[in-house]
């Protein structure tokens, strides 16, 4: 169907009545990788939270559909059930709940009884290998006392284990050392090359272009002040790398003026 | 009615006479019982044991004339048989009434070592009317892997249990005490007394599941000799008004103490838990972990004290107490306290009271976990640092299941 894809249209959203997003249009096709870049405060995380249904963000207007299903009227868990995954910039700690238990519970909620316990185990150990983690990771409490790198690895482990249709990675590269960044890149690339992961559409939200050295984006969008001001191919990331956001900001100002 | 000092009505010497007739000589002699009853009647009812402000339940309003009726058949004591190996090693597990007669020397070495009823109103009451109990003695050097299980069940009338555990030098044991009461059993008032010799190790866990009609007042006391190690873990999940008071004394150098308490007051339950670790000698250590939750109109109070006496150089103590409120009608007071009279010690305490965080909930929901399931998972996880300190996976699973049942009733209009 032509509806396939994560379609964001005319999305206006914010916190406490402040419009942060001022009309976002973005279409992520299955299997494609979009990078959304922008300076701090441009509204990137607001977009991620609005799509996922964070209770602090209220949508004023616009639509978000996932393979034809309208997301904005759904509770957050139903959005996940529709096929959405959000990798958090700052994942919450859930003390007392083990990584294994958390992922098993989520997997069971999203895909009831589709994996035997032994297949689940085999799959999760395989993913741990990709992420350079050992089995002890599974018995730790979710994000409790985790380093920045461990938190992002856990997000990637969940991405691989929960088999979404579309994944929004919010600043997954922030606060990562080189090794952790490489592990995150490997994980996403391994997933994209796998049979089950090849159709996942990605929206990678980032301030810095460096994650795009590990994950190749098909499309790059630049966001400023709640709007997407420029879209292009991967070469756009190189412009940001070279000139920062100022050049784009001047361009936009000139075109508006 | 005019205001007057609270008294507990209805305990008469006649009811004690009736008890003595039924129980026969037993392990507590008649004079000790009569003296204890006299103390109970004379000692003031401390405000601190009556519960929190605004509590609907108050020990001062307890009417013992209706509860202090005694019938041995109205309560059960289950003792699991000792394994042949434990029996050969000389381990004793004996009904309290026969303990003094059958194991006089061992009994008298332990009895009264940790419990002092002289200035304790409810310990005196428990001693006066003691009608069930068990004596466990693990001789020096004996290590038993199998847990010893003691089960009290009050089916009607009142239960006054006494658990006396003596662990000899270098000996090691695990004791699980289950305490149940049906809705027809209005009152449980008991004592646990734990006596650890040099380098003894005891793990003692309590799983209290009395019906919500029952009032409980439990006094638990322990004393540790040099290098002894005690793990006490108590789950106070039952009772309409449950009061438990634990005091452990690290009486000699190097004694180490782990205290774990969890409670969950839901419906209209009132739960009052006190723990105190006393560092009375050098290089004694203690850790205390408390987790509690309130739901419905449940009321809870935790008072946790760490006392480091002047001789306790090098003491190391920590106390962590967290409370989770799952409904607007629930309330928990948390009062951690430190009394330090020695220099050169380490002591830490911290307490929190709060609801489930929206950020945690959203994180779990974003993974596809429905909100109610996420709340249950997070609330259960909240208890896990306490649950994981209980012995035996089977006991931990039972406690998790009981907690889950209480959590599931969130928002279902209980209380």
Task: Describe, in plain words, how this protein is organized in 3D.
- The complex is a heterodimer of chains A (257) and B (415).
- Chain A is of the alpha/beta class.
- In chain A, 38% of the residues lie in helices and 28% in strands.
- Chain A has nine helices and twelve strands.
- Chain B is α/β, with parallel strands linked by helices.
- In chain B, the strands form two sheets. In chain B, strands 2, 3, 5, 6, 8, 10, 12, 14, 16 and 18 form a ten-stranded mixed beta sheet that branches.
- The longest helix of chain B is centred in the last third of the chain and has 17 residues, at 371-387.
- Residues 1-6 and 411-415 of chain B have low confidence and may be disordered.
- Chains A and B meet through α2, β7 and α3 of A and α8 and α9 of B.
Q: From the alpha carbons, calculate the radius of gyration of chain B and give it in angstroms.
A: 21 Å
Tell me the helix content of chain B. 10-25%
Assembly status: heterodimer
- Name the chain pair with the biggest interface and residue counts per chain: A-B, 30 and 24 residues
Mean pLDDT of chain B: 90
How do the helices and strands line up, and which of them pair or pack?
The complex is a heterodimer of chains A (257) and B (415).
Chain A: E1 6-15, E2 18-28, E3 33-37, H1 44-52, E4 58-66, E5 69-70, H2 76-82, E6 84-87, E7 94-98, H3 99-110, H4 117-130, H5 136-139, E8 141-142, H6 148-162, E9 166-170, H7 178-193, E10 201-206, E11 219-224, E12 227-232, H8 235-243, H9 246-256
Parallel strand pairs in A: 3-10, 3-11, 6-9, 9-10
Antiparallel strand pairs in A: 1-2, 1-4, 4-5, 7-8, 11-12
Chain B: H1 13-23, H2 30-42, H3 64-67, E1 75-79, H4 84-88, E2 92-95, H5 96-102, H6 104-110, H7 121-129, E3 132-138, E4 148-154, E5 158-159, E6 161-167, E7 172-181, E8 187-196, E9 201-210, E10 215-224, E11 229-236, E12 241-250, E13 256-265, E14 270-279, E15 285-294, E16 299-308, E17 316-325, E18 331-340, E19 346-354, H8 358-366, H9 371-387, H10 393-408
Parallel strand pairs in B: 3-6, 4-7, 5-8, 6-8, 7-9, 8-10, 9-11, 10-12, 11-13, 12-14, 13-15, 14-16, 15-17, 16-18, 17-19
Antiparallel strand pairs in B: 1-4, 2-3
């Amino acid at each position: 169907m032509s509806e396939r894809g994560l379609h964001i249209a005319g999305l206006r959203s914010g916190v406490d009545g402040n419009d942060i997003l001022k009309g976002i249009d973005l279409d992520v096709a299955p299997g494609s990788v979009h990078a959304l870049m922008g300076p701090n405060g441009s509204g990137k995380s607001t977009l991620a939270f609005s799509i996922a249904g964070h209770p602090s963000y209220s949508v004023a207007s616009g639509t978000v559909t996932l393979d034809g299903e309208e997301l904005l009227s759904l509770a957050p868990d139903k959005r996940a059930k529709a096929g959405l995954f959000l990798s958090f910039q700052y994942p919450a700690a859930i003390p007392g709940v083990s990584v294994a238990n958390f992922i098993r519970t989520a997997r069971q909620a999203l895909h009831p009884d589709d994996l035997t316990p032994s297949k689940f185990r085999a799959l999760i150990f395989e993913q741990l290998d990709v992420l350079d983690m050992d089995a002890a990771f599974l018995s730790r409490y979710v994000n409790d006392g985790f380093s920045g790198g461990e938190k992002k690895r856990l997000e990637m482990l969940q991405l691989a284990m929960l088999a979404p249709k579309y994944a929004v990675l919010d600043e997954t590269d922030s606060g990562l050392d080189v090794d952790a960044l490489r592990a995150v890149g490997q994980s996403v690339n391994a997933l994209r090359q796998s049979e089950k992961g090849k159709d996942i559409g990605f929206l990678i939200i980032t301030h810095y272009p460096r994650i795009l050295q590990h994950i190749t984006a098909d499309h790059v969008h630049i966001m400023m002040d709640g709007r997407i001001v420029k879209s292009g191919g991967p070469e756009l990331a190189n412009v940001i790398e070279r000139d920062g956001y100022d050049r784009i900001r001047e361009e936009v100002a000139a075109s508006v003026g | 009615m005019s205001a007057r000092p609270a008294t507990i009505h209805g305990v008469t010497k006649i009811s004690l006479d009736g008890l003595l007739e039924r129980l026969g000589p037993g392990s507590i002699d008649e004079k000790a019982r009569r003296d204890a009853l006299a103390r109970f009647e004379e000692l003031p009812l401390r405000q601190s044991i009556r519960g929190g402000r605004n509590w609907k339940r108050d020990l001062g309003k307890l009417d013992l004339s209706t509860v202090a009726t005694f019938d041995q058949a109205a309560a059960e004591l289950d003792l699991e048989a000792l394994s042949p190996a434990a029996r050969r090693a000389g381990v004793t597990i004996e009904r309290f009434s026969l303990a003094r007669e059958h194991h006089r020397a061992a009994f008298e070495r332990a009895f009264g070592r940790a419990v002092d009823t002289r200035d304790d109103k409810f310990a005196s009451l428990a001693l006066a009317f003691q009608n069930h109990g068990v004596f466990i003695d693990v001789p020096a050097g004996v290590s038993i892997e199998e847990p010893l299980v003691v089960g009290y069940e009050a089916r009607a009338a009142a239960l006054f249990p006494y658990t006396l555990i003596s662990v000899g030098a270098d000996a090691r044991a695990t004791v699980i005490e289950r305490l149940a009461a049906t809705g027809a059993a209005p009152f449980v008032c008991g004592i646990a007394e734990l006596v650890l010799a040099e380098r003894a190790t005891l793990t003692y866990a309590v799983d209290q599941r009395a019906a919500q009609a029952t009032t409980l007042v439990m006094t638990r006391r322990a004393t540790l000799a040099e290098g002894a190690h005690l793990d006490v873990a108590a789950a106070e999940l039952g009772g309409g008004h449950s009061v438990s008071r634990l005091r452990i004394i690290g009486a000699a150098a190097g004694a180490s103490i782990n205290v774990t308490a969890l409670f969950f007051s839901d419906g209209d339950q009132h739960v009052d838990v006190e723990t105190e670790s006393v560092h009375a000698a050098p290089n004694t250590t203690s850790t205390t972990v408390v987790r509690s939750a309130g739901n419905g109109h449940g009321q809870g109070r935790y008072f946790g004290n760490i006392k480091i006496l002047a001789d306790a150089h090098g003491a190391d103590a920590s106390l962590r107490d967290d409370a989770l409120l799952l409904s607007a009608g629930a309330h928990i007071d948390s009062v951690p306290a430190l009394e330090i009279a020695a220099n050169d010690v380490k002591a830490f305490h911290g307490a929190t009271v709060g609801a489930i965080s929206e950020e945690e909930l959203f994180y779990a929901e974003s993974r596809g976990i429905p909100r109610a399931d996420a709340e249950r998972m997070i609330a259960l996880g909240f208890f896990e640092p306490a649950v994981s300190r209980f012995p035996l996976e089977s006991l931990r699973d039972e406690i998790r299941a009981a907690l889950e049942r209480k959590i599931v009733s969130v928002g279902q209009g209980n209380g």
